[in-house]
Each structure stands twice: as C-alpha cells, then as structure tokens.
Write a structure and sequence with these properties.
The complex is a heterotrimer. By secondary structure, chain A is α/β, with parallel strands linked by helices. Chain A is built from 9 helices and 10 strands. Chain A is globular, with a radius of gyration of 19 Å. In chain B, helix 1 packs across helix 4. Classes of the chains: A alpha/beta, B mainly alpha, C alpha/beta.
C-alpha cells in the first residue's frame, strides 16, 4: 500500500490548502480562472520573477507538501503532458522575430519539461532522485508508477505530481487535434506517498496504464479482479469521460471540475482522497483516465483499514 | 550620464522582470550580482548582453567579458558611454 | 537478478548503425561539420545528412513523423532486430527526448506567426510522448510506453527506469534509450546561452569554449535473466548499476565541486556492488563547456581519488546529442566492453590547469575492460550514471 500523507492542488477550483476540496467544488464554466495563491509566500522574489504559471504552481504545491511532512523527499517524480508551454511559445516567438545573434535565453532555459522538477529540487535544496515523465494523457500515471516503484525499493517520502498549463494557442487545436467540450485550464497536483501509514486516511492500492486498443470495459474488469475487487465494491468512479457511469454507484466526470489538461487525473486523486475524508462509509474509489481514446490509466484508491 | 543611468535602471527592471523594484531602489554603485547586491546570476548576465545589444547596439561576444562591465550601474554606464 | 543488454542500435553523424559507428570510432573520424540547414549553417554541428522523408524511405519506416521520432525508430529498430514479439514476454519502450517533435511543429508555428495558414495536423507530432508512441508503434510494442524528459540525462534515465521496471517484475523486456533531432529551437536556444564553440569542441581541454550540438538516437534492449531463458537471446553486456541525483545548485550551471555528479556516480557503484577501482573506463558527459567539464572533473576526482581510470568524452565525435547522448554513449560503452576499446577524446591537447586530468588520447582495442561507467548530466542539475559490465 502507498499511503497518501498529504496532497495539494492549484487549479481553477479553490483547491489549495483546503481542509476538503469538496466543500467548494463546482463544475467549471469557461469563465473560471486559475485560482493562484500568493506565490510570494512560497517562492523568493528573486526566483519568482522568471517563473511561468506552471513552474509557480509546481514549486508552490510541492513546497506546501514538504511543509506538511516530517521527512525530506527521498524521491521526486513529476508528470507533464505538454510541459512549459508559455516559455516554449515565448522562445518560438523570439527566434522568429528577433534578428541578429543575441537572443534572450530565459524562456529557452525554462522551456524544458524538467524545469518543473528541477526547480522543485533547487527550491527545496533536495538532492534526491528527480524524474520527469511525459506521456500525453497518461503523464501523471507514469510518474505515479515511478513513485510507487520508489516506495517498493524502500524510499519513504516520495513526492509525485503533475502539472500542465493552458495557453491561448490550444484553442486553435480544439475540434481537430483536441476533442473536448471542457475549457482548457491549468493545474498542478502534488502528493506525498509513503509506505508507512502515518496519519493518512487513504492509500493508492494500484495504478496501471494501457496502450492497446482492447475493450476498455474488459481492461477495467481485469484490473479490478487483479486487485481483488469488482464494480460492486466501488463506492465512486471518477472518470475523465462517462463511459462507466451506468456501472457506478456514484460517478463524477473529473474533467468537469478540473477543466481540460492532460494530467488532470492527478486532480482526481485529490478528489478521491478528500471524498474518503468526507464520506466515512465509503471505502473504494476507481479513477478511470480515458481522456485519450487509445490509452487507459486506472488508479485504485482505498480507505486505510482501521487497525484492530 | 545621469539620464543614461536612469534609463539603464528602467531597462534592467524590464529585461530582468524585477517587478518589485523601481529605479530608485537601484543604487548607482551597488553590486548587481551576488547576495550583497540585487542577487542576480549567470542567466541575468546573458540578459544584460541582450539589453546592451537591443538598446545600445553594443555586442559582447564572450560572456566572460561581462563580469567587469556588469558590476554596477556605474560600470555599465561607463562601458556604454565608451563604446556607443 | 541480472539485467542483460540483448540488443543495441544507434544513429548519429558518425554512422547510421552500430557497424558504421564502430568504423568511425576506430578511424577517429568526427561527424561534426559546418551545418547545412538554414539554422545550422553558421555552426559546427553533428548533423545527419538526410531529410526526414529520405530517412523514412531509406529505413523503410511505416510512419511520417518528426525527426526525433524518425531517428528513434531507426535506432530502436536496429536494437530490436531479431527480437520476436511474443505475448509471453511483456515488452515496453521507454525513450528520452528533450524537444520531441519540435523540428516539425516549429515550421508550422512559423507559418502561423507570419499570418499564413499552418497545417494543424503537424502539431500532433509535437508532444514528446507522441515521439515514443510512434517509435513503439514502429516496433509493435504496446505493453508499456513512457517518455523521460530530463534534458541531456534523459536517455540514461530511460535506461535506468527500464532496469527498475524489469527488476520489479512489471515488464520482462524493455527497449530503452533516447532520441533528439536538431531543430531551430534547439540551436537558437543554445546560441542564446552563448555556449557554442565556433571551432571543434575540446572536452576536458584547458582551452575549451563550449559545445557543438549534434543529433541522433541510441537504444538498448534490456531483458531479465528469466526472460533470456525464454527469448534465447545472447547477452551483449550486463547493465549492472545506475543512479540519479539532483545537483540542486542552479538552473543551468553545475556546482563547482560536482556534488550531484558525485552522488550519481556513487549510487551507481553501490547498485552495481562495485568499488571505484573496478571501473576500467569512464565515458564522461564532457560537453566541453567550461563549467561542465570542470565540475565533472572534480566529481570524478572525488569518487575515484588518486587512481582515475582511463576516461574520455565522445562528444567531440558526435556533438552533444542532448537527450540521445546517454543512449548513444551506452552503445559506445558496449562496443568498448566487447572489443576492449578505449575511446579517444578527440581534439584534446592541454589538461585543465586546475585538475590536471588527461583523458584517453588515442583509440586502442584489446584492452581488458570489464566495467564501464557512463555519465549524463542535464539542465536543472539532473545527474545520472550507468555502469555496463562485460558478460
């Protein structure tokens, strides 16, 4: 079992440093903006001046996590689907508009995907394992699986997170490359996992990723069976779409709350954790990440057993 | 010269995104780099090279040359006056 | 449980496959030349001469894709040649890349900026994750696909994650490595950092000024001891150690004492159960920037003390191929193990005054080489090391 010691999200919901995000959770409309904390409380001004939204979100959520757990992280694993889009676009504009040899380097430096995890390690002065994964809509799950593996290998304060940021350019791809009814949003969720229960309420029982075009219902059934449960045991399904609504006792499409970004299933983990805090009778939640039709990510979240 | 220095301070604030500062916060002879000054680093040194190129048409090919030039607003202004 | 390397493939400016690469290494012939593209013509780069379309035809690929994906397909296909897909052997692919499909998306984006019609379908090749999915599709691998993006250490981190997934029993076999195609974005980016050497790069030389960029891909096939019994493959080498650590010093600069590098090398030695004195050759990261080579030299001195094994940087052969470098250099490492090769650090003349370290100057074969340590360090202080051992 992989116990969720703490979890923080910065999203278009009022989700940062809240007792329970369900208290204020509402379906998003296109009007909702990113709800940013005062980043100056978390990041030195000298560093903050250079940082784009995705970096601010990632560092702040991580730092808020580190403040809540006793041990320094002994592993940092971050997933991002499209990385630092603002700086990438900014540097593309620079190289296409500035003539001459001398170009401003800051946007380039901060355009690489691992700027997020790199800045987290810099800010926390953390020398541990530091990894950045990017696999389109399964970016969070592959980062999470790395974090779970780190715990299996004996690490005990494992930071896992995902972050993506929206830029206006994405709107041009709506309907052609990106099919979604949801607004494009930015979001970051970071969580601390441990092999020890501590004060945690819930744990991640399993996470699996699928890259085949097999029947998704079969894949879900097999995943559940491998983890000794079935649809009947699920108190809640959090799904990107709504394919499994009819099999669920309770069901939410998490993209309605996170908006569309490809690592939004990380926010669903936050929804699941806080659901179990709020609903004392519920035990088991399945997150179905079917955001992309040719892939599937499944994460099973379980209330910690009460020890006799 | 004092006009040049005032312009420089505004340009430094813009180029380096020093949003919290005003030109009055930057002393002419205060060190720009290191923890005793504005706390600027090697990335900022490259941004100074961009600033000199785009605002004054002065090209510095070797970033090592910048160390002397970028010590303070005074040294920057002196270098610009000499090379423009 | 041992992790075996059972396949390798490589493409870079010095060769389009393992055989050509060995010939170029042997003849001490660099692939770095004056660039031929509009964005590379002012620089010395390790470019591969063919266009994307030519590469797709020459290597009989089934997909049009970005340069990063195409180079990855070529090297991964060579590595996987002779390996049979089999539902009993769960096979994954983990690739490292820094810019993904930027070489094609930057062209479309330029049209957009100029107010012309950009072909939106091109952007589907942009995400780094897509490049790996395309490579996996070319090999018909679908049990697991992942992309590591930690800048210049990406390939080594992909190799490391692959080994860990094999050890944990999540996969039976995994194709691992890295790929990066040159793009205007990358060339302009490193130009903005003012770390190009206009001459041929000189790693570990007192007069070194900076990097020459390159492009390419390098992939390995890793299998467990158990899998080898079923696949019947002959192992080429053992992947015996790996480590990753964060320098946590500066976004672009390495710490002067090479702290993160030291941590990465030490943890790889620990995983391998080896002492520093067991290492017979170090393939250094050695980008030829003043900062990296000095920092890495200090790290090597800290780990190896007064008896430093023969070491060199092969960046003066290929240029710095960024996310691909660790994969390409792992292929060099396997060649070195199997033929007892010490690879020369081309263009070296004068040791760095502060450290006095002298790398391997001439190519030689037939040396006794049992263990090789290979470093790859990335932006943001991402430091990684692998150790390859002879069978």
């Amino acid at each position: 079992m992989y116990f969720i010691q703490h979890i923080e999200s910065i999203t278009h919901q009022d989700s940062f440093q809240k007792d329970n995000i369900w208290n204020d959770l509402k379906p998003l409309t296109g009007e909702n903006e990113l709800i940013s904390p005062d980043y100056k409380n978390y990041i030195p001004v000298a560093a903050l001046r250079r940082l784009s939204t995705i970096l601010r979100m990632g560092i702040t959520a991580s730092k808020a996590c580190q403040e809540k757990v006793a041990n320094e992280f002994d592993s940092i694993s971050v997933g991002t689907a499209l990385g630092c889009l603002t700086d990438t676009e900014k540097f593309l504009v620079t190289i296409n508009t500035v003539s001459g040899d001398i170009l401003s380097p800051t946007a380039f430096i901060q355009s690489t995907h691992n700027t997020i995890s790199g800045q987290i390690s810099l800010d926390l002065k953390n020398h541990a394992y530091n990894m950045t994964h990017t696999q389109n809509a399964l970016s969070f799950e592959v980062a999470l699986k790395d974090g779970l593996l780190c715990i299996d290998e004996g690490k005990n304060s494992v930071l896992v997170g995902a972050a993506d940021e929206a830029i206006p350019f994405l709107e041009r791809l709506r309907g052609s490359l990106i099919e979604t009814e949801h607004p494009f949003t930015s979001g970051a969720t970071f969580l601390v996992l441990s092999g020890e229960k501590g004060n945690s309420i819930a744990c991640i029982q399993a996470c699996e990723v699928y890259f085949t075009n097999e029947n998704k219902a079969t894949q879900v059934e097999q995943f559940l069976a491998a983890n000794n449960c079935s649809f009947q045991d699920l108190d809640l399904i959090l799904e990107a779409g709504s394919d499994f609504k009819s099999q669920a006792k309770k069901h939410y499409s998490f993209l309605k709350y996170s908006g569309f970004y490809q690592s939004a299933s990380a926010f669903a983990v936050h929804m699941a954790n806080d659901w179990l805090i709020k609903n004392g009778d519920d035990k088991t939640i399945l997150i179905v990440n079917n955001l992309e039709s040719n892939k599937l990510g499944l994460t099973l979240i379980h209330r910690n057993d009460v020890e006799a | 010269m004092s006009d040049l220095k005032e312009n420089l301070k505004a340009q430094i604030i813009e180029q380096l995104n020093l949003e919290d500062l005003t030109p009055a916060d930057i002393q002419d002879d205060a060190p720009l780099f290191g923890d005793d000054g504005l706390g600027l680093d090697s990335i900022d040194a490259l941004e100074f090279i961009v600033l000199l190129d785009s605002n004054y048409g002065i090209k510095i090919a070797d970033p090592n040359e910048g160390k002397e030039i970028f010590q303070s607003v005074n040294t920057l202004a002196a270098y610009i006056s000499k090379n423009q | 449980m041992r992790i075996y390397v059972t396949g390798y493939g490589v493409i870079s400016s010095i060769g389009e496959n393992v055989e050509e690469t060995l010939l170029a290494l042997r003849s001490e012939k660099t692939g770095i030349k004056q660039g031929k593209k509009t964005y590379s013509e002012h620089f010395k780069v390790g470019e591969i001469g063919w266009t994307n379309t030519e590469l797709v035809q020459r290597f009989d690929l089934t997909q049009e894709a970005s340069r990063t994906a195409i180079l990855g397909m070529i090297a991964a296909k060579e590595a996987f040649k002779g390996h049979a897909l089999n539902s009993d052997i769960r096979t994954g692919l983990i690739s490292g890349t820094s810019v993904g499909g930027m070489d094609v998306s930057e062209i479309a984006y330029k049209d957009f900026l100029n107010g012309e019609t950009d072909d939106l379908s091109i952007y589907k090749n942009h995400p780094s994750g897509t490049t790996s999915e395309q490579i996996a599709k070319e090999l018909e691998i679908d049990a697991y696909v992942n992309t590591i993006s930690t800048a210049c250490s990406s390939a080594v981190n992909a190799i490391m994650l692959g080994a860990r997934m094999l050890l944990s029993g999540q996969l039976d076999r995994v194709v691992v490595g890295g790929t990066d195609g040159l793009s205007q974005f990358t060339i302009s980016g490193f130009r903005s950092l003012m770390i190009f050497d206009e001459e041929w790069c000189r790693p570990f030389d007192e007069t070194r000024k900076g990097i020459n960029l390159g492009e390419g891909a390098g992939f390995l096939v890793l299998e467990t001891e158990e899998t080898i019994k079923r696949s019947g493959k002959q192992p080429l080498a053992i992947l015996s150690g790996w480590g990753n650590a964060s320098d946590a010093y500066h976004q672009t600069a390495s710490s002067p004492e090479g702290f993160g590098a030291t941590l990465a090398m030490k943890s790889a030695l620990k995983v391998a159960g080896l002492d520093p004195s067991d290492i017979d050759y170090i393939n250094a990261h050695g980008t030829a920037t003043p900062n990296n080579d000095l920092s890495e030299s200090h790290g090597i001195k800290t780990v190896f003390g007064s008896t430093i094994p023969p070491f060199s940087s092969t960046k003066s052969y290929t240029g710095h191929t960024l996310a691909a470098s660790g994969g390409i250099e792992a292929v060099f490492g396997i060649l070195a193990l199997n033929k007892g090769i010490l690879l020369p650090n081309l263009n070296f003349k004068q040791a760095i005054e502060e450290t006095g370290l002298v790398p391997v100057k001439n190519y030689s074969e037939g040396n006794t080489i049992k263990h090789i340590l290979s470093n790859s360090f990335g932006f943001g202080g991402n430091n990684s090391t692998i150790i390859l051992s002879a069978i």
